[in-house]
Amino acid sequence: MKNRFVVTITDVNGSKQYNIHQYMKQIMLYIILLVVVIFFFSFISIRLLLKEVEQIEIKRDLMQQEYLKINEKNEQLRALVDEKTEELVKVSDRIEDLEGIVGLSDQIIEAPQDLSLIERVDLARITGAQKAFVMQLIPNGVPLRGSYRITSEWGARVNPVLQRTQPHNGIDFGIPVGTPIYAPADGVADFTNNGYNGGYGIMVKLEHSFGFKTFYAHLSKIVVNKGDFVQRGQLIAYSGNSGRSTGPHLHYEIRYLSRDLNPRPFIEWTMRDYTQIFEKEKNIKWQSLLTMINKLVEIQATPALSHKEQK
């Protein structure tokens, strides 16, 4: 009996005995032990896998954070590239000092320092025809028609991407895509491009007389070609949302001898308020400029020239 294992089962009907061989007993023990071992190792494996999954999720979160940081850095670098490109655009527009070329230096016309600018210009001698001629050549008024709102003024502002204060070289008009844009003065289409243009998007540059230039950025369509002569009030493009833009608008700039000017006094300049521009905009030597323009008007109005043109 020593190699036997007796199992007794008792119920209401009596007792029954079952003899199990000792080897069967060992086999059962081994099976039970195997199941316990499998369960134990499975439990350990699952815990290790769960821990590994948790570590993978942590690494994934870290990688996502790194990706967001890299993406933000790329946006900042792209904005810096756009900024440098805009600076290169400005550098490309550098021209020689026009006053030196046409002889409008300080030595030619020297006014007493105690006289006001308006007195030095001597507006009493400027006729209506001369005023109209000036406003035909120098940018004035709003380069669009109908209602609009100014969404960003000229001057320092916080760059929405770089989060630092930077100069804003123009005025932004908040208008729907497809709004017609008109030339504010006679000129030549110096630049027409449908590319990215350093964040400006589709852009037109007009070159006007006496060193003035106007820029129109974030357009949707251009209707003039490079080299085209345009007249004041002529359609040149349609507004849009191209380039680095946060919404549909027109970015409008005025430059004089490569210097950025505040467009506000120019868009408010009218025949009725003809003299205000001379006091508001101090970066232009109006006396020299208007004297030269008035001489051109006088030359154009001479009988000899008129008779020659009639022939």
TrEMBL record:
<dbReference type="Pfam" id="PF01551">
    <property type="entry name" value="Peptidase_M23"/>
</dbReference>
<keyword id="KW-0732">Signal</keyword>
<keyword id="KW-0812">Transmembrane</keyword>
<feature type="transmembrane region" description="Helical">
    <location>
        <begin position="27"/>
        <end position="50"/>
    </location>
</feature>
<dbReference type="GO" id="GO:0004222">
    <property type="term" value="F:metalloendopeptidase activity"/>
</dbReference>
<feature type="coiled-coil region">
    <location>
        <begin position="46"/>
        <end position="101"/>
    </location>
</feature>
<keyword id="KW-1133">Transmembrane helix</keyword>
<dbReference type="InterPro" id="IPR016047">
    <property type="entry name" value="M23ase_b-sheet_dom"/>
</dbReference>
<keyword id="KW-0472">Membrane</keyword>
<protein>
    <submittedName>
        <fullName>Peptidase</fullName>
    </submittedName>
</protein>
<keyword id="KW-0175">Coiled coil</keyword>
<dbReference type="InterPro" id="IPR050570">
    <property type="entry name" value="Cell_wall_metabolism_enzyme"/>
</dbReference>
<feature type="domain" description="M23ase beta-sheet core">
    <location>
        <begin position="167"/>
        <end position="263"/>
    </location>
</feature>
<dbReference type="InterPro" id="IPR011055">
    <property type="entry name" value="Dup_hybrid_motif"/>
</dbReference>
